[in-house]
Amino acid sequence: MEKDVDGSTKENELGGGSNNGGNGDQWDWTTSFVLFGLWSGLMYYVFFLAPNQIPLTDMYFLKKLLNLKGDDGFQMNEVLVGLWYIMGLWPLVYSMLLLPTARR
Q1: What parts of the chain have a pLDDT lower than 50?
Q2: Which of 19, 80, 91, 98 is spaced 20 to 30 Å from 57 by Cα?
Q3: Could you give the angle at which helices 78-98 and 55-65 cross, rounded to 10 degrees?
Q4: Does 68 share its domain with 102?
Q5: Which portions of the sequence form the region Disordered (predicted)?
Q6: How confident is the model over 44-60, as pLDDT tens digits?
Q7: DSSP 104
Q8: Which of 31, 28, 22 minimizes the C-alpha distance to 12?
Q9: DSSP assignments along 26-63, one per residue
Q10: Do residues 74 and 101 share a domain?
């Protein structure tokens, strides 16, 4: 970082600001490889290790989570039901934070 005449600082064109003085090539490639590794690991799980479900089963679970299916004796996992409800509450909380208040 260099100081201007008026005392403000600006980043050097070659070094960048927070990249430890390098030009960023090594950091960019490392990040790309890490992200590609995470992505390919996720794809491997999705295609080879994930449980084989049929669309009918997915629809059944969605109906149970949305309380559209009556009591048929099947008990949903309470952790999944809790996560389902919490994930519906987060957008509500964020929207309430974005609404303007009456105070000035």
Answers
A1: 16
A2: 91
A3: 60
A4: yes
A5: 1-26
A6: 988 888 877 788 888 88
A7: -
A8: 22
A9: HHHHHHHHHHHHHHHHHHHIIIIIS----HHHHHHHHH
A10: yes
The amino acid at residue 67 is N
- Say how many Å lie between the first and final Cα of the chain, rounded: 41
CA atoms within 13 A on the CB side of 70: 1
Domain ranges, residue 1: 1-50
Helical (H) or strand (E) element with 9: strand 9-10
**46 and 56 inside one domain:** no
Does one domain contain both 7 and 30? yes
pLDDT score at 7: 59
Two tokens at 85? 């409800």
Six token digits for residue 82: 């809790």
Tokens 């952790």 correspond to 79
* Same domain, yes or no: 32 and 66: no
CA–CA separation, 44 and 40 (whole Å): 6
